[in-house]
Amino acid sequence: MLEPDDVRGAIKRYGGRAKAFAPEFCDYAPPPVPPAGLVAAYDAATRSIALSWTNAVTAYVFAVQWEVTKDACAGAPTGAGALTQPGPGTGVNPAAGAAPGNYCVAMWSQDRFNRLAGPTTAWVAIPSSS
């Protein structure tokens, strides 16, 4: 792919003007695919939700975002969750103080062009404390 300084050099040497470029239309890298095998489990001892998943093997997926919502799945990521390196993944999302009930964990893969794929969802129940 051409870097901005490459374009400037070509314009200086050959003349002309640069057009706007939208990387999402470039087939240089395939779009990311959603995480697979998402499992969410509540751990009463730590009052946290443990997440595990597998990312597709692609050099361009570098991060994962997740969102935990009560009784409904999030439609779009809000930047919640942590950015996690690819590969078989695990993450812990604290649920301390969360009200008992059913929670949806929605997860998206993100590539270096900030394109998102997903969501993949899993449900987890937080029981009332005894």
What does this protein structure show overall?
The chain has one domain: Immunoglobulins (Immunoglobulin-like). The strands form two sheets. The chain has a three-stranded antiparallel β-sheet, with no helix packed on it. A three-stranded antiparallel β-sheet has the order 3-5-6, with no helix packed on it. By secondary structure, it is mainly beta. The chain is 8% helix and 41% strand. It is elongated and about 70 Å long.
Number of distinct beta strands: 6
| CATH-defined fold name | Immunoglobulin-like
How widely separated are the two ends?
A: 59 Å
The unreliable regions are 82-89
Q: Please state the CA-atom Rg, rounded to the nearest Å.
A: 20 Å
CATH-scheme architecture: Sandwich
Please report the number of helical segments. Answer: 1
Biggest beta sheet attributes: 3 strands, antiparallel
Instruction: State the helicity in percent bands.
Output: under 10%
Give the H and E element order: HEEEEEE
| Overall outline | elongated
- Classify the beta-strand content into a percent band: 35-45%
Kindly provide the name of the CATH class: Mainly Beta
Content-based structural category: mainly beta
Q: Would you tell me the overall average pLDDT?
A: 74
The fourth-level CATH homologous superfamily is Immunoglobulins
- Order of neighbouring strands in the sheet with most strands: 1-2-4
How many discrete structural domains? 1
